[in-house]
Amino acid sequence: MRFSSIKRKELIRFLFGGGSAVIVDYLVYRLLMACGLNMDIAKGISFVCGAAVGFVINKLWTFESARFSKGEVLRYILLYACTATINALVNKGVLAVAPVQILGFLCATGVSTVLNFLGQKFFVFRK
């Protein structure tokens, strides 16, 4: 892994793409909840929608990976499964030390954001 190959443009685009994915996740979640869907099912569906938006934006725009491969999709799913688990563990760990919900959330989000960027750059959309 060569950190010197990280480009500022990629970081900015990744943050924009991630923000777009979060907005889609939130809007779909709210829409499904307003339609009376079970909260857990609504959250599961909205997460998948947000992750799909993030995949497309980061693949085509952030990391400019024009070719399509099933391997990229599988690596993306594997990465997100791992970082979701790490996110939950960091949140739980921070809350065990300092029971401040926003602190746990921010630390967990920060760690998973960094890992998702590095994972997408060097594992999912590697050139």
Radius of gyration: 16 Å
**Proportion of residues in β-strands:** under 5%
Number of domains: 2
- Mean residue pLDDT: 91
Sheet of most strands: none
State the share of residues found in helices, binned by percent.
Answer: over 70%
Number of strands: 0
| Unreliable parts | none
Number of helices in the DSSP assignment: 4
Order of helices and strands: HHHH
Can I get a quick summary?
With 127 residues, this protein is mostly helical. It contains 4 helices and no strands.
Task: Give a written overview of the molecule.
- With 127 residues, the chain is mainly α.
- The protein has 2 domains: 7-64; 66-127.
- It is built from 4 helices and no strands.
- Helix 1 packs antiparallel against helix 2 and helix 3 packs antiparallel against helix 4 (101-124).
- The longest helix has 28 residues, at 70-97.
- It is globular, with a radius of gyration of 16 Å.
- The mean pLDDT is 91.
Considering the chains and any ligands shown, give keywords for the structure.
127 residues; mainly alpha; globular
List the topology elements.
Blueprint: H1 8-34, H2 39-62, H3 70-97, H4 101-124
Helix pairs in contact: 1-2, 3-4
